[in-house]
Amino acid sequence: MxxxxxxxxxxxxxxxxxxxxxxxxAGQTVGAVVLSLSPVCIELxxxxxGTASVYxxxxxxxxxxxxxxxxxxxxxxxxxxxxxxxxxGGALFAGDMxxxxxxxxxxxxxxxxxxxxVQVVVVPLLAxxxxxxxxxxxxxxxxxxxxxxVVLTGGLFEQGASGSDPTxxxxxxxxxxxxxxxFLFLLRRGGFEGHVVTTYTVVVMSATVFSALGGWAWGAxxxxxxxxxxxxxxVAAVSSGMIGWLLVALNxxxxxSHVGAxxxxxxxxxxxxxxxxxxxxxPTFAQWGGCALILVSAYATVTSRTRA
Length: 308
Hints:
The chain is an all-alpha fold. The chain has 16 helices and no strands.
């Protein structure tokens, strides 16, 4: 009887992702693919940046609170450090959403997408600098191929620096990239010692508040969007807030930082495919080639064995 009780306790304390089919890599992959639905839904909603950012967070809050209650009863209140991670991560996530949306109109979707996805470099560098995490040589060797894939997928050569203000757009895109990288790093750190769902709920709550403040400051916030727009934003909330980012929050702490960052590049690939299928967009041959480079290099990087 004692052995059964001990085994049950050990299983309960085991990370949730270790009990899921395929483990953390499969969970991170599913999360990244599900996240690719969000840009399409936001495009269909035709909502301003602030409105989309607020409602894609706000609409999933009730469900996240309910999901966090069992964890809260089991683990108790999270430490203050976890709460600070959540608040700071939410602020960075809101900054990423608002800055990237602004950069699209100022410098074009291609360059802004390329700059935001430099997280594949920044997140492992942060993990190395702060946590002294080893960055494998194989990842560094494949990094130029990944970078080329991101550049081609973003359609940079087709669109160039199109937009209303390329200089301001580049600055906003770089700031969005830094915000996104910081958000991913804190989201990953916030899930190492339990309280994962609770900390993630704090992230989304914080992102809601900061998105509202930022959207109001930029004049891009509509608190009463049309019903059709609200419907598409609700789908974005389910796909990104309730499923996609929650899976990333659950899985990324149990993956090497470079693996989690590479798998998240599946999001722009999925968005490109969905844009073609749902929105009738016509990606160029170079963009499809960029997707292929990302998939091949991601497979080679993620499935490789890391040397000790």
